[in-house]
Each structure stands twice: as C-alpha cells, then as structure tokens.
C-alpha cells in the first residue's frame, strides 16, 4: 500500500472527515487497522486514492454507512469463545450472586449486536434458577453499550440466526430462545438487558459500582494511549472486588496490572483489588 507523504496527507484528511461527520474518533485507532478496513471499501468501489474515496463519501451516503460498518467490526456470536463463559459461570457469577447487594450492575462494553448480553443474561438466569433464587434476579441489570447504532438496534431486538449459536451449548439455546429460527431471546432475558449508544473513548461509564465489566475484541483496535485510558475508566467504574473480563485477545498493561488480582490468567479475568 502506498504510504508516501501525499498518501499520508490524504489519509489524515479522510480520517478527520469521518471523525467530524460521523463521530468515529479515528485518531484513537491503530492506523494499520484503519487503513486495512478503508482499503477493503476502496477496492469494492474502485477508488484509486483516499481523496477519490473522500469525494465518493460526499456523493453516496450508503457507502458512508458501509464504511462505518467496516470500521466498527461488529462480528460476534452467542457464547463466543466458550471457555471464557464457562469460567464466568463457575468463577464469577456464584461469587457475585452471594453478595448481599440491592443491585448487581453488569456492563458489556462494545456489545455489538448483543449476543454477549444475552449470553450473560442466560448465565445469570440459569444460576438463579438452579439455586432456587429466581426472585433475586430483579437486582440484575445488564447494560450493553456500543458506538454503532445499527448494531444496537439488533441488540435491542434480540433475534438471531442459527449461525450465531454454533458455540452456545444447545441446552442454553433451547431454554432461552424461541424454537423457530430466527431465534428470539426469551422475555426473562430481555428483562435483564438494556442497551445504549456510548463511545468508550469519549464518554463516561454508564454506571458506577459496576460488579462485572466484559470488554472483549474491542480494545485491540485502539492505540496504546487509548487502551490505557479505557482500562483506567473501567477501574474507576468497578466496585472494589468487581470483575473485569477481557478474554483471550486483550490484556492489562503496565501499572494497571497492580490494581487488579488475577482470577483466571488464561481467560484474562481480573478482579479490582479491594480499596
Ligand atoms: C468485534 S465487536 C465485539 C463484540 C463482543 N464484545 C464480542 O467479543 O463478541 C467490537 C465492537 O466494538 C465497538 N466499538 C469500536 N469502537 C468503539 C468505541 N469507541 N466505543 C464503543 N464501542 C466501540 C464496535 O462498534 C463493535 O460493535
């Protein structure tokens, strides 16, 4: 790919335009990642340069939406990376359930189309049901946030194609989703979930004293400074003893590590050290 001075100037002009017009703060994302994603759309539309593509965005709002879609990378699944959910079910939810608190707030940061939200809701519901404490579910609130409005609409709808379930144990799908495809999440799960648009890099956390934050497959696209400031935001939002689930591809860096105890090093589950 051309990375000469002209190309660099044109690339900056394009990313500045996207940030100004669509509120997607490209400056916080890794350049390589942005360039690869933009290149895919440029090839699809036969644009020879960043400036040609910039002009195309002015003429074609549909292409602008496709570009935003490509930049936000919304791929997800129910029970994605099953091992991390097994660990959450065994090591996190029972501990949270035992707390005598009027509210249990969970935040899925970068929830995309909501598969992670309904996975969490199913695990909490199953734990409550198995322990004969369903009435205590009323205290659970699972907040999903994402920057991408179209994904959030799908999260709100909670209806998924069969391909979204390939990693979820069949028993959970049968218990919590409609029999016919596309499968809709049961009302018991929907009652636990709320979604909201939130830019993780520019806006505050949706709540304080959060007991569990999951943020998976999101932070890898951010530059290092943005990763660190987001991890600090998570720390401030968590209650002492609250859990942070990062999953296999993300990790805690530098001085932030000292603020957490490691619960599961393989699945990257951390616990905010008590104050
Ligand atoms: C690959 S999905 C991750 C979905 C889910 N957490 C999972 O692991 O399956 C990444 C999500 O991060 C969201 N995202 C990217 N930048 C964001 C930002 N600055 N604020 C909030 N969400 C962001 C994207 O819109 C996308 O839906």
Structure characterization notes:
- The chain is of the alpha/beta class and 275 residues long.
- The chain folds into two domains: 5-72, Orthogonal Bundle (Chemotaxis Receptor Methyltransferase Cher, domain 1); 82-272, Vaccinia Virus protein VP39 (Rossmann fold).
- Helices cover 44% and strands 16% of the residues.
- The protein contains ten helices and nine strands.
- The protein has helices at 5-22, 31-45, 50-59, 61-72, 82-97, 115-130, 149-157, 170-176, 187-190, 224-237; strands at 104-109, 140-146, 159-160, 183-184, 193-197, 210-214, 238-245, 260-264, 269-272.
- The chain has a seven-stranded mixed β-sheet. Strands 3-4 form a two-stranded antiparallel sheet.
- Helix 1 (5-22) packs parallel to helix 3 (50-59), helix 2 (31-45) runs antiparallel to helix 4 (61-72) and helix 3 (50-59) crosses helix 4 (61-72).
- The longest helix is centred in the N-terminal third of the chain and has 18 residues, at 5-22.
- The model has no long low-confidence stretch (mean pLDDT 95).
- The structure holds S-adenosylmethionine.
- S-adenosylmethionine (SAM) is lined by residues 72-76, 80, 110-112, 116, 146-148, 151, 199-201, 216-218.
- S-adenosylmethionine binds next to loops.
How are the SSEs ordered, and which strands pair?
Blueprint: H1 5-22, H2 31-45, H3 50-59, H4 61-72, H5 82-97, E1 104-109, H6 115-130, E2 140-146, H7 149-157, E3 159-160, H8 170-176, E4 183-184, H9 187-190, E5 193-197, E6 210-214, H10 224-237, E7 238-245, E8 260-264, E9 269-272
Parallel strand pairs: 1-2, 1-6, 2-5, 6-7
Antiparallel strand pairs: 3-4, 7-9, 8-9
This protein binds S-adenosylmethionine.
